[in-house]
């Protein structure tokens, strides 16, 4: 799934505008002064290791937490002073499910529509629209407790859209789902941003998903350490990763150091090193007469970007979630 | 708002949510209330089990006590089961109402509370909807028991039924509000159950549901008088016995709560219940503002 080339009007009033935002929990500074602008209509990815302050930031933007200092505007409303206006204009999909499993899918959406004051005559058509979009219209009268994890997640996305929010916040929308379900969720999100005038703000642990965003921000230790399009961030890391298999790895390693001054490592019979523009570099090795049996050149991945900025691999954080170690401490306290 | 609103495809049903007003809060109350009813209707098991305890009290304890007191003079004019009936009605309401309120803790554990708390409506509306919903369900359970009135010598007088139902509603509202107030800060359903056991049983035993409150030792009298449930049971009992002729000796058992020598009028009992209910709703709302 490639993200579509899209035009974002950066001059329009931003969907999210954050200035100097901080949040303290006692002595712990969870958010240390961040500035952030999310343009209207963009799909914005928010990445970071566990405990980086992502969830705290998103909670502030959703008016669930008050900032310690700084300001945040969502859909052009202040999260502190215009709380209800912010809430009317955002849709929320949380990490943990917030459906009533003893109600049917339709009843969950009706409940939401009533709470958000959706005009009565629009409840039914809008429900049909959002349920069809996530492929659950046929299951509207089934109790949610009969739904699989992926269906529940889709229903939550549909519910978050019932009141036509201007900004949809998704906190780890695909965590714990299998790859097929994950990609179907993203398919719905793509359809959504193409069919509705909506800004999507998503946190994720999956780098392949971050690649689908128009821009991403990487947060670490309460600060934003990188913010740009995935392509630009990868370009910043610059170097490609080259992996070669040779008849004599040790000789090849020494030759590469001598000739090009590049340090490489031998891992499981594969010689690995980083170099700018790897595709042009590899032919030089052949010209040297090196006995190469296999070559692979990899463009920098977002994982490399993430690693470069945070010093940890997102996979570590990923595994922590997969193991079910739960949300970071400051999240647990707020439920 | 000044954003680029490109014309969306025609198929999109776009919703424009009106700004928050008293109507949003009113709709919120109604939908939270309706959810309680839907959930209760689905939960047949709960309907049956919450009638178990009152029926045990009424027919097992009631019959057992009858044989104990069978020979004594004054008591024989008042059937023990008839005497217990108002208390048992209150008990049915008590348990159903508290369980309904407890569903807030359940909602918190399973995340649904969050869906309600992030909505652009006043939290008071959520709390009020919950209280009214729980009260409706509890009144319904009281009504089911009231249908058994004939079995314990209580006549099916229409006026009496109307009065008792109205009183049960008031009582149910107070108790649900009490439950919501307790539930506001509790994180797990187990903790809530433990909490209610600690609070509910003493309240029930000290309410005069099982024995007359006249001629009790002072310490017990004080405890019963500060228990709001006392006035609830007494109100229902006096209403029901107003429609039964028990003779002067029997009447002394059901004459009502006295403060010193002063018989507390029934209207004042109703006011006490209503005021307690309002205070508890108010406290619950404040708790939820912070939650």
Offer a concise description of the structure.
With 335 residues, chain A is α/β, with parallel strands linked by helices.
Q: Which secondary structure elements does this structure contain, and how are they paired or packed?
A:
The complex is a heterodimer of chains A (335) and B (291).
Chain A (H helix, E strand, L loop, with lengths): L15 E10 L2 E11 L4 E5 L6 H8 L7 E6 L2 E2 L4 H6 L1 E4 L11 H11 L4 H14 L15 H13 L5 E5 L7 H17 L3 E5 L3 H4 L4 E6 L2 E6 L1 H8 L2 E7 L2 H12 L4 E3 L2 E6 L2 H10 L4 E7 L3 H9 L3 H9 L6 H4 L3
Helix pairs in contact in A: 3-5, 4-5, 8-11
Chain B lengths: L21 H21 L1 H26 L10 H30 L2 H6 L5 H24 L11 H26 L5 H17 L12 H8 L2 H14 L5 H5 L6 E2 L2 E2 L2 H25 L1
Antiparallel strand pairs in B: 1-2
Helix pairs in contact in B: 1-5, 2-3, 3-5, 3-6, 3-7, 3-9, 5-6, 5-11, 6-9, 6-11, 9-11
Features:
heterodimer, A: 335 residues, alpha/beta, Rossmann fold, Alpha-Beta Plaits, 2 domains, six-stranded mixed β-sheet, four-stranded antiparallel β-sheet, 13 helices, 37% helix, 25% strand, disordered C terminus, B: 291 residues, mainly alpha, two-stranded antiparallel sheet, 11 helices, elongated, disordered N terminus
Structural class of chain A: alpha/beta
Helix segment tally of chain B? 11
SSE string of chain A: EEEHEEHEHHHEHEHEEHEHEEHEHHH
Radius of gyration of chain A: 23 Å
**Span between N and C termini of chain A?**
35 Å
Give the largest chain-chain interface (CB within 8 Å).
Answer: A-B, 50 and 41 residues
Q: What's the domain count of chain B? A: 1
Low-confidence stretches of chain B: 1-10
Give, in spatial order, the strands making up the sheet with the most strands of chain B: 1-2
Following the backbone from N to C, one meets helices and strands of chain B in this order, namely HHHHHHHHHHEEH
Determine and state the CATH class of the largest domain in chain A. Alpha Beta
Shape of chain A: elongated
Mean pLDDT of chain B: 86
How many domains of chain A, as an integer?
Answer: 2
Radius of gyration of chain B: 22 Å
Strands of the biggest beta sheet of chain A: in what spatial order? 6-7-8-3-9-10
> Mind describing the biggest β-sheet of chain A?
6 strands, mixed
Percent helix range of chain B: 55-70%
CA-CA gap between termini of chain B: 31 Å
How many runs of DSSP E, i.e. beta strands of chain A? 14
Unreliable runs of chain A: 1-5, 320-335
